[in-house]
Write a structure and sequence with these properties.
By secondary structure, the chain is mainly α. It is about 70% helix and about 5% strand. A two-stranded antiparallel ribbon has the order 1-2.
């Protein structure tokens, strides 16, 4: 799966801030994470509006996490960066005529989206940082999380 540039950059910025554990300048984040600085500033506004990061003005200002890395999920980051697009898509879907086949496809798509969201919501920034420490363990952990979320959704459906 290929992430949109905004999603990729936003996740990189959040992971960088979590790894640094302090206030970081947009210049440092942009340089170290290979993110165009002007774009980073736009994304930071969305992340700030979602309550994921804080902006500190001034000579020694910059950005820092607004929450503990264990309290920020990947889904929260993606949602913060994608909310406008999702609202636009939902509005378009509502205006279309529905048939039984279209309703079935929509229901199936909603199930896929719910499963995807549940998995991403179970992954925290802290988890991702831990996975970078030991990639072998990281892959096993992520696979286990996927299995766990699958079992949870199956139990919820029954």
């Amino acid at each position: 799966m290929q992430l949109k540039a905004s999603t990729d950059y936003g996740i990189r910025a959040i992971l960088y801030l979590a790894a640094q554990g302090t206030t970081c300048s947009s210049k440092d984040i942009a340089h170290d994470m290979s993110i165009p600085r002007d774009y980073l500033i736009q994304l930071a506004q969305l992340l700030r509006n979602a309550g994921l990061i804080e902006a500190r003005p001034g000579k020694h200002g910059g950005y820092r996490l607004a929450k503990d890395p264990a309290d920020i999920s990947v889904l929260q980051i993606i949602s913060a960066l994608d909310e406008d697009a999702k609202q636009s898509t939902r509005a378009k879907r509502i205006t279309r005529k529905n048939s039984a086949m279209v309703d079935g496809v929509k229901q199936t798509y909603r199930l896929i989206e719910e499963s995807f969201d549940a998995y991403l919501d179970s992954l925290t920034v802290e988890t991702l940082l831990d996975c970078t420490q030991d990639t072998g363990k990281g892959q096993a952990y992520l696979a286990e999380r996927l299995g766990s979320e699958s079992r949870r959704l199956t139990a919820q459906a029954n």
